[in-house]
Amino acid sequence: MKVLLLGLTGNVGSRLLPSLLAHNHSVVAFVRSPSKIPSEIKSKLAALVVGSATDSNAIRTAILEHECDAVVNAAGVAAMTGFTAQGEFTAIFEAVVKVCSEAGKERGVPIRCWFMSGFGILDGPKKGCLLSDFIPLFPSHKRNYALIKSIPPSTLAWSLFCAMEMPPKHPSPQFPPSPDSPADNLIAKADSPPNWNEKWKKVPLIGNYLNIMTQMQGYVAGLERCADFIAGDLEKGMGSEWVGRRVGVVERSKVI
């Protein structure tokens, strides 16, 4: 696939590039500050587009002019609470969703998209509730989820990557990716945390909170493995089992 990657200069995006290349994708990078990209990285790109990730017109032009089949949005950082500066995370998400939906409608074929999201929008221990309904952190993820659910699947084939913590194994991106970080070492599940234990759920009044608080910090997934997971999934195209789903992950070594 030809993939438009937003957020190349960030912690997540910089690890996605080597994984995308290793899975034989062609990468068009969309960045605000090209001066941050070393020349040896630029040489690995199919194209480099300069613009703001909140500019839907610029993103649309990049998708159509470079004939991108997929988009991976790793741009922006979500604020932990609603009481601090929110930055551009939600605006970027909205711009990418809008333009990808429009491009898919124009082409008559949905754009395959991966968005970095949050653990809190996975299903919680109580039916009809999300984890963030109990632990209301990173509220922008919940708003973003509500937005993307409203988009017709005929125009946008989306997936939300919902990791709790993604520590990098290596201090800098590895080209090619290190063989010690394959996605095979992850357990993934659609819409809810994989291998979730309901041990404390029946405790009166506080059971659901205990259930979440005693487990959520254990949901660690190495950043390079997560990048490999996304890049590998894009090889499946529209046949991916993760289209239209929130994807929870955890390292196999963390499963008891």
Question: Biggest β-sheet: count, sense, barrel?
Answer: 8 strands, mixed
Kindly, what is the distance between the CA atoms of the first and last residues, rounded to a whole number of angstroms? 37 Å
Helix content: 25-40%
Strand order, sheet with most strands: 3-2-1-4-5-6-8-7
The radius of gyration computed from the alpha-carbon positions, rounded to a whole number of angstroms, is 18 Å
Treating each run of at least 4 consecutive H or I residues as one helix, how many helices?
7
Structural class by secondary-structure content: alpha/beta
CATH homologous superfamily (4th level) name: NAD(P)-binding Rossmann-like Domain
What is the molecular shape? Answer: globular
In the CATH classification, which architecture applies? 3-Layer(aba) Sandwich
Report a brief summary of the structure:
This protein is of the alpha/beta class and 256 residues long. The chain is built from 7 helices and 8 strands; from the N terminus they run E-H-E-H-E-H-E-H-E-H-E-E-H-H-E.
Structure characterization notes:
Helices cover 29% and strands 17% of the residues. The chain has a single domain, classed as NAD(P)-binding Rossmann-like Domain (Rossmann fold, 3-Layer(aba) Sandwich), CATH 3.40.50.720. By secondary structure, the protein is α/β, with parallel strands linked by helices. The protein has an 8-stranded mixed β-sheet with strand order 3-2-1-4-5-6-8-7, sandwiched between helices. The model has no long low-confidence stretch (mean pLDDT 92). Residues 169-180 have a biased composition (Pro residues).
